[in-house]
Write a structure and sequence with these properties.
3 domains, elongated, 3-stranded antiparallel sheet, Endonuclease, Chain A, 48% helix, alpha+beta, Arc Repressor Mutant, subunit A, 4-stranded mixed sheet, 13 helices
């Protein structure tokens, strides 16, 4: 390799490494014009530092978390993608851990990496793989399916909530997309946990379940689906100046929805009323809790009327 060409190839390799968080694969160097001998020379001179099998850090051995993830993917060959908890951490809906990077490969051939947990998945579809920060990664919906059996309910709900908060995927879309993966392990459990996120009662069902709870809490029959202070409300007790609103989703609250809810509640409060919110899931599946809150609020309001 001539001097001028050598510099050009070196610059190209460095530019590639920068895009890949400081790492480059041996096969990428060979494709770009390096000979095996030249690769070994750069290793000997401390310009390349081995971090995974066939993968090198360029310039300095220290890598960021993204660099370590990229190195793990590159070490597993073409078509590999970050997956499972590592993918969830890259997408941002779980926190990174110090465990081995997890990588899926669309091949049944065995790949062993001491520092990488490799999943052989010949049925992995190209559509299931995307990129984030230039790192090949399994997309959010199949990633949720992959991690569903690894997290307890609280942690899985927290991940769903976080993915919604950062506008990555909302619970309704996640639930709907599960239909594309009917036999994938993890789908059944994910559907179960998603139930309370997307649970919705019709107006008649809501009244049928809520009215006995309110009656048991000592409240009179409320006005239903009426307008108060310019807003349609679910339940209203004029004499108590109490309004109860119900939300169809436990966690999915976009900024626009949150703003509308604040305006509704603030308007009721400015008019001297008390707004209380429950979810449809709570009304249907946590009636004791709903009744306890209603009794407490009603007792306080009756004391001042």
């Amino acid at each position: 390799m001539g001097s001028s060409n050598d510099q050009t190839v070196a610059r190209q390799a460095w530019a590639l490494a920068k895009r890949q968080h400081g790492v480059v694969a041996r096969r990428q160097l060979l494709v770009r014009g390096f000979s095996p001998r030249e690769v070994q020379q750069r290793i000997a001179r401390g310009r390349l530092h081995s971090v995974e099998r066939g993968v090198y850090a360029v310039g300095r051995p220290e890598l960021t978390q993204h660099g370590r993830w990229m190195a793990a993917v590159l070490s597993c060959g073409d078509g590999a993608a970050l997956s499972h908890m590592s993918a969830a951490a890259l997408w941002g809906f779980v926190k990174p851990s110090r465990t081995k990077a997890e990588v899926s490969v669309p091949s049944a051939s065995p790949r062993r990496r001491s520092s990488v947990r490799v999943y052989r998945r010949p049925t992995l579809r190209p559509a299931d793989i995307g990129t984030r920060d230039n790192i090949p990664v399994v997309r959010p919906v199949p990633t949720f399916i992959d991690i569903a059996r690894s997290l307890d309910d609280a942690k899985l709900e927290r991940a769903i909530n976080e993915a919604d908060r950062i506008d990555l995927v909302d619970p309704e879309t996640l639930a709907a997309r599960l239909e594309d993966y009917p036999s994938r392990p993890g789908v059944t459990r994910l559907r179960k946990v998603l139930g309370r996120h997307v649970f919705l009662l019709s107006d008649s069902e809501l009244e049928r379940w809520f009215m006995p709870i309110a009656a048991a809490a000592g409240l009179p029959i409320p006005h239903t689906q009426t307008y108060v202070n310019g807003f349609r409300v679910d339940f209203h007790w004029p004499d108590l100046r109490l309004v109860v609103e119900t939300d169809g989703l436990k966690y999915h609250r976009t900024p626009a929805q949150q703003n509308r809810d604040r305006i509704r509640d603030q308007t009721h409060q400015a008019a001297g009323m008390v707004p209380v919110r429950f979810t449809h899931w709570q009304v249907r599946h946590e009636p004791d809790y709903v009744g306890q809150i209603l009794r407490s609020v009603a007792s306080r309001l009756l004391a001042v009327t």
